[in-house]
C-alpha cells in the first residue's frame, strides 16, 4: 500500500458557509461544499464585495490625463 492509500484526505472549511469539506477529486465544487456556495462566492466577487487589497487601477480618463501631462512636460525641455 502506498502512503496515499492510508492517508486521511485533507479536510477544509467551505469558504462560504464554513462547513467541513473533504478535498477529493469527486467533489467538483471544492473547496466549496456545494454549487450554491460556489455561486454565492462568485456573486460576491462580481458585485465587488470581495476585493484584493492594493492600489486602485487607473481608468482610461486618468491614463489619458497622465499621458497628456507627460507630453506637455516633454515639450518644455
Automatic annotation (TrEMBL):
Its cofactor is Zn(2+). NCBIfam families: PRK00418.1 (NF001638). Belongs to the DNA gyrase inhibitor YacG family. This is DNA gyrase inhibitor YacG. It holds the Pfam family YacG. Gene3D superfamilies: Erythroid Transcription Factor GATA-1, subunit A. The gene is yacG. Binds 1 zinc ion. The keyword Calcium does not apply. InterPro entries: DNA_gyrase_inhibitor_YacG (IPR005584), Znf_NHR/GATA (IPR013088). Keywords: Metal-binding, Zinc.
Amino acid at each position: 500500500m502506498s502512503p496515499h492509500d492510508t492517508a486521511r484526505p485533507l479536510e477544509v472549511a467551505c469558504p462560504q458557509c464554513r462547513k467541513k469539506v473533504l478535498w477529493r477529486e469527486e467533489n467538483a465544487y471544492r473547496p466549496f461544499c456545494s454549487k450554491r456556495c460556489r455561486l454565492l462566492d462568485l456573486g460576491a466577487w462580481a458585485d465587488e464585495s470581495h476585493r484584493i487589497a492594493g492600489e486602485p487601477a487607473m481608468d482610461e480618463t486618468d491614463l489619458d490625463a497622465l499621458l497628456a501631462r507627460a507630453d506637455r512636460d516633454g515639450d518644455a525641455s
